[in-house]
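Our platform keeps sequence and structure together, in a single record for each protein. Nothing more is needed to write down the fold, since each code stands for a local backbone conformation. An entry from our holdings is shown next, in its original layout:
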Amino acid sequence: MAEAQTRESAVATGMTLAWWARLIPSTPAVISSSGSVSFGELNGRANQLARALRHRGLEAGDAVAVLCGNQVEFVETVFATVRAGLRMTPINRYLTADEVRYILDDCDAKALISDGSLAGAAAGALAGAPCCSVWLSVGDAGGAGRSGGSTPACEDYAQVRDAEDPSDLDDPSAGTTMFYTAGTTGRPKGVFRSAASAASMLGLNLFGYREGGGDVHLCTGPLHHAAPLSFSLAVPISYGATVVLMERFDAAETLRLIGRHGVTHTHLVPTMFHRLLSLPAPVREAADLSRLRNVLHGAAPCPVVVKQRIIDWFGPIVWEYYAASEGIGSFVDSETWLAHPGTIGKPFTPGQMIVGDESCNPLPPDELGLIWLRAAPGGRFEYYKDPGQTQSSYRGDYFTLGDVGRMDEEGFFYLTDRSANLIISGGVNIYPAEVDAVLLQHPAIADVATIGVPDAEWGESVLAVVELQPGMAASHELAAELISFCRSQLARFKCPRAVDFVPDLPRQDNGKIYKRLLRDRYRAAADRPLGG
């Protein structure tokens, strides 16, 4: 590739990593439990993999699926596809073979890169995905790697990669990443955005990175989710920051890694905040947070008391965003949030967000409604191969994620809950996030999910499903105490009528609770006949 004149030109062609590889080749780009790789090494491996995929018939616009955990090979694939003009789809490593097969087929994947430990699911999925003709396994795939029937031959990822030239591509072409929604209302949908739209985020240094200046970002979430891949990998690497990869989140290990590597930035979700705050005081007090400058969070409403405690501990370095795979709306810093507790901030630009009714008609200040986001010029997303769903998601230039909220007189937005989580009891709307925020203040609770369950008299009644802190025992007395605690802070009609204690709440691997799965379980139990 010809010498890039500016970082911006490198972004436009998907070669930002190559830009930094020339400037800081020996600086660690990624540190993981299995070792580290420098910017120069990572760039060379990305070039090798890009060539390997091209030599196996993939062309610009083709799709590559990735079924891996947080490991260096996942990172290599990200930067190989983005410079080869390919469309990469990360797949949740915890999906079943049938679920993986659906995404492979729906995204038209021509290649699959999978972890050897997931070879069984990969082979099962590939058997029903005839469009996928290339299969690379990171590590030994065992017996599952033997080709048979319609399953493509399994090749060793490292051998395939290492056989290629590591020099920069002569003809880079910016690719893109297509994530799949969680499928809260049915089958997951691919959210497609153009390469130019996806690259626009890399041109905004919203997180205060010092370009090539030794910043370190701790990635706590799974890379197959949009926020960790974007905010904890693509953005920091694009500014020459080192990324420390966690295989999975652990609160105590998070603090250890922050101190050991001098972490300056990280991305967390509210559940992680609560887990960190639940650590014993001596563990929290011993943590070295001296270099930490920016903690970014989003993905779910954060209870005010939890965020207040995190800011008290970390300092005014906490930033919150409102966004999803489909687009981005607002940011808010700690100082502004402290002046307006609970806000998700103001939109980037006037009119970027509104609170409206089902038709996107704006509502007056402080009236609850759907939060609508305006698509960026030339950056409208589309649901892949589903123009009907795409069209129905828009009202003119605006779309909604189904979140309910309000805007105050000063123009600050507040997120109430997802419309799908709404409980309607006796004709009254109840937002579970408000109840969760109160119950999380009780010292006995490790985590909680408030849901609506069928009720013959009220339509739905409020149930708190509780995971207790270690050492706490479930009892009728504790359940009554929790209900009373909630009633001391909320109107009685909002509070749980019952509490159910469970060993573990069902979670997505990014820490968010699967409320839909929880609701389905309890509703199925309610529908089951007596003695069934």
In short: The longest strand covers residues 445-455. The radius of gyration is 24 Å. Residues 422-525 form a domain with the GMP Synthetase; Chain A, domain 3 fold (CATH 3.30.300.30). The chain has a mean pLDDT of 88.
